[in-house]
Design a protein that fits this description.
The structure holds 2 protein chains of 2 kinds. Chain A is about 50% helix and about 10% strand. Chain A is an alpha/beta fold. The chains are: A alpha/beta, B mainly beta.
């Protein structure tokens, strides 16, 4: 429990609440008092929000179900387009879907559009993973009619991405991948995906202009093909380009027609059924917007938000599934904010109306269901999917990118209190104080976001990756400043060109804790899969030196990471052939210029892979080295016996291993070895793999909910952990409860890892009384500046008391607004299974001692 | 046999629409569940047989 006073630099600091009224709120229900929607309308919208969160793989809300419409229309189109070029088939598939899909319009909403035939439903993707769709057929969420759904899945099995890729792998390797114990299942088996759509293009140009551009390219191509003399070497490449441009035109026209169907629906409801005159007028306004967006360039902020929403639905749910909501929202919308709020030249609005609009966008995202397999519902407990928006940072000229749009986004998040979308703030020491204050208030209100990324490290990374560009057209210094988080952690370019279009470029996970476990057992997973999971690298009982164990671990890691990345690149190859994205390609200036599909063109490499359960392995290596090889207090035979017994009957031994030096305490006894493990093995070995784009693949350490799922599949480990216990909750976070030397010791530990990393997630839990006191902002600000100076990549915060968490466990119905940061995303605490809740309660609540404040050099 | 063209919820698609086809219309209906009412719109042919939601114009 935090003391309410502290002696610091000759002063007695009081940590009473900055808002005196909070003194009257019981500490164990604070978060229920923080919501403050900006209007009655957004209060109503939140009250009737059709949440799509899942907990332990089950949807929390009643009545959520998979839809059949997308599957049905996709299949009809596929059957009718046999013989056409594949990219044209993909465009025609999108057209058939958009021409015939049921549209949804809900009362009170201003941003319109949904991706399934009913707001309680979500679409499925049989063309991606047949296993993921088969999973649904066995559940209460099965699309109906069930017989039709089963027939559709059967039809797609041979055409699916999964089937196309599997044949290029040894069945044993596939089996190992499908266990999800040493690595995340192959990307082609899950259908899970990410994309960074070029929203800038559609808002700036409008689709009609893109159609004209493609038409002019086709005209030029045909003319080139018809010249005399014919030269096949230069003439034949035009064929594929013509197909790609034609597909772009088909897709774009279909999207315009679909958007205008929304306009028509709003007009019909307004003129024939709506009795409220204000709502009638509003529906007619929406109809006008939907008629023009995204066909035309956006003029005002309402245009921009609707155009962006339509683009999101196509890129993330209709053309193909993709998790995420990646864009630099404040920069993207700033020109339209200026037009509407500052100049009031188009769709005049006040700043407060912008806040309301952003609240409405947050609620639309919260309703957006994703048809993920059970495994993926389980690894994001308490959420519907990952939706991460990036704000802040710096502009292309290195000036502060924070503006009033940034503040509106932050204020809307603080007021409406939803778990999605999460926000990432690119922290730079030149960011304006007024915006930092909003960032701080969101964090101290316990939203778990903004998650903070180091702006300059991200810029440097984009420039470094640019060196590997296959086309010699990687990020320029100006473009390198326009980066966003592609999903929870990894920077990638945003903008009109060069953005990441598929998860096979970067994403998916590897599990070092399980790799260490099998390293001790000659590559055999005895505690979960009961099979050989890697090469036979020997039994730990035979290793005479720690170096032998280290090298065996390296070999296990090499095998698994090469397999995992190969899975991604084989998937990429098949995505290029069969899963083209003509709509997304339309928006990318490179794809348009070169006549290439978005999966195929790679101008900016962005390869990464996520080590998850890293610190369990790191702490275990430290304990083994100390207690077995250095001090020889125990033998490896004794350790293996204890592990196979899950430490039962070996309690003292377990305590010794538990008490071995741990990461996160600025202790060289742990940090030296663990830093080496990060830099030499996790990053060094991963970086030797070159992906499709020609660049290295580097680690993005993180966890999402996989630290729970994979923890449950990982046997007892030499850090003193019991088998089945959750693993560490972030890429570089200390194991829950083991960071005991204060928050600045954690920073000092983490700052030691610098080489061969792309990103590393750091979870920290900060004291509620300190953060909510009048000193909270100054302490946090000093902490962040220190974090920045130490060149740390990331940090995200929980600010919630153990009292409140335990009260929520006892009476969940009274704590619906309690939000926590899981890892890379936020969730309603009561929607997380108890197993996961307990891991958050176990995270150490950091107090700031006088020594910490001295280290931060904070002036209070 | 009643057809969609006689239904209150049927709206013929105008000729200038991007998705115009002869005799194609929007079927715009209201649905209600525990969370409230919402509108759905899907394309139908005016000659299609009336469904269970049919309501004479």
């Amino acid at each position: 429990m935090t003391a309410n006073t502290l002696n610091y630099r000759g002063k007695v600091l009081n940590f009473t609440p900055e808002n005196p009224a909070e003194a009257n709120i019981p500490a164990d229900e604070l978060h229920e008092h923080l919501q403050n929607p900006s209007t009655e309308r957004t209060r109503r919208l939140k009250a009737r929000c059709r949440w799509k969160h899942a907990s332990a793989g089950e949807f929390v809300e009643k009545g959520v179900q998979a839809g059949i419409e997308r599957m049905r229309l996709l299949t009809e189109s596929h059957k009718s387009t046999v013989g056409q070029p594949e990219v044209i088939r993909r465009a025609l598939m999108l057209k058939h879907l958009l021409d015939n899909a049921t549209l949804v319009l809900q009362p009170d909403e201003f941003i319109v559009g949904y991706h399934a035939e009913d707001p309680n439903m979500f679409p499925l993707y049989p063309e991606l993973s047949y296993m993921a769709v088969l999973d649904y057929l066995k559940t209460d969420y099965a699309p109906q009619p069930a017989a039709e759904a089963a027939a559709i899945v059967d039809y797609w099995k041979p055409y699916s991405l999964q089937s196309k890729c599997e044949r290029y792998f040894d069945p044993i390797d596939l089996q190992r991948g499908y266990q999800v114990s040493t690595m995340e299942g192959p990307v082609f088996a899950s259908g899970y995906n990410s994309v960074v759509p070029p929203y800038e293009t559609v808002l700036e140009d409008g689709l009609l202009a893109r159609i004209k551009l493609a038409e002019s390219h086709i005209k030029h191509a045909r003319s080139e093909m018809e010249t005399f003399p014919w030269n096949a070497t230069t003439g034949l490449p035009w064929i594929e380009k013509i197909d790609n441009w034609e597909a772009m035109i088909i897709a774009s026209k279909a999207v315009i027609a679909w958007a205008r169907r929304h306009a028509r629906m709003c007009k019909i409801v307004a003129e024939r059924f709506e009795t409220n005159s204000k709502r009638r007028a509003e529906l007619l306004e929406i109809a006008d917007i939907c008629h023009r967006m995204p066909a035309e360039p956006a003029k005002g902020l309402k245009d921009a938000v609707q155009s962006k929403w339509f683009t999101f639905l196509i890129a993330h749910a209709l053309e193909r599934y993709a998790s995420g909501f990646a864009h630099k929202e404040d920069s993207l919308l700033w020109p339209y904010y200026k037009a509407s709020v500052v100049a009031k030249s188009h769709q005049p609005m006040t700043h407060q109306q912008v806040v309301e609009l952003m609240e409405m966008e947050r609620l639309k995202i919260s309703e957006h269901g994703a048809g993920k397999s059970r495994a993926y519902r389980e690894i994001f407990p308490g959420s519907n999917d990952l939706f991460i928006v990036t704000i802040g940072g710096t502009n292309g000229d290195a000036s502060d990118a924070c503006n009033d749009m940034t503040d509106a986004i932050l204020e809307s998040a603080k007021r409406i209190r939803t778990t999605e979308p999460s926000l990432v703030f690119r922290y730079n020491k030149i960011n304006r104080a007024s915006t930092l204050r909003w960032v701080f208030e969101c964090i101290r209100d316990g939203l778990g976001y903004p998650s903070i990324k180091n702006d300059e490290l991200g810029v440097a990374q984009m420039l470094e990756y640019a060196k590997y560009s296959k086309t010699g057209n990687g990020a320029t210094p100006e473009e390198a400043r326009y980066w966003v988080n592609v999903l929870c952690m990894s920077p990638g370019l945003a903008g009109r060109r060069k953005t990441q279009k598929t998860r096979s470029e970067g994403g998916s996970a590897i599990f070092p804790a399980k790799l260490l476990e099998i390293t001790l057992n000659n590559g055999y997973d005895w505690s979960y899969a009961d099979m050989q999971m890697g090469p036979e690298t020997g039994y730990a009982v035979d290793f005479k030196t720690f170096d032998q164990l280290w090298e065996a671990f390296r070999k296990q890691y090499q095998y698994t990471i090469a397999l995992a990345i190969r899975c991604k690149d084989v998937s990429r190859t098949m995505e290029i052939k069969y899963l083209q994205m003509p709509f997304v390609s339309t928006l990318d200036d490179g794809c348009m210029e070169l006549g290439m599909d978005a999966n195929e063109l790679s101008e900016q490499p962005n390869g990464w892979h996520n080590p998850i359960t890293t610190i369990v392995a790191g702490n275990s290596l430290v304990a083994i080295k100390k207690l077995i090889y250095d001090e020889k207090k125990y033998t490896m035979v004794q350790l293996m016996t204890a592990l196979k017994a899950n430490w039962e009957g070996h309690e003292q031994m377990r305590q010794d291993f538990k008490n071995a030096p741990k990461w996160g305490n600025d202790d060289p006894a742990a940090d030296d070895l663990i830093s080496k493990y990060y830099e030499e093995i996790l990053g060094g070995e991963m970086g030797r793999n070159i992906n499709y784009s020609g660049g290295p693949v580097l680690p993005v350490g993180q966890a999402v909910g996989l630290y729970m799922e994979v923890g449950s599949r990982t046997g007892p480990t030499p850090d003193g952990r019991l088998g089945g216990e959750a693993a560490d909750d972030g890429g570089i976070s200390p194991y829950m409860g083991t960071d005991k030397k204060g928050p600045t010791a954690v920073l000092r530990s983490v700052s030691k890892v610098q080489k061969n990393q792309k990103a590393n997630l750091l979870n920290q839990r900060l004291s509620v009384p300190i953060m909510r006191s009048k000193h909270g902002f100054d302490i946090w600000h000093a902490y962040m500046d220190t974090w920045c100076d130490l060149k740390i990549d990331h940090v995200q915060f929980n600010v919630v008391s153990t009292d409140e968490l335990k009260a929520a466990q006892r009476e969940p119905e009274k704590h619906h607004d309690l939000i926590v940061r899981v890892s890379g995303y936020s969730a309603r605490f009561v929607d997380i299974p108890t197993y996961g809740q307990n891991t958050i309660i176990a995270r150490h609540e950091q107090d700031f001692s006088a020594n910490d404040l001295e280290f931060l050099n904070v002036d209070l | 046999m009643t057809t969609c063209t006689q239904c209150e919820f049927f709206n013929i698609i105008p000729k200038e629409a991007d998705d115009y086809e002869p005799s194609k219309g929007d079927c715009v209906t209201e649905k209600v569940d525990e969370k409230g009412a919402y509108w759905l719109s899907k394309p139908v042919s005016e000659t299609a047989d009336a469904c269970a939601s049919f309501h004479k114009r």
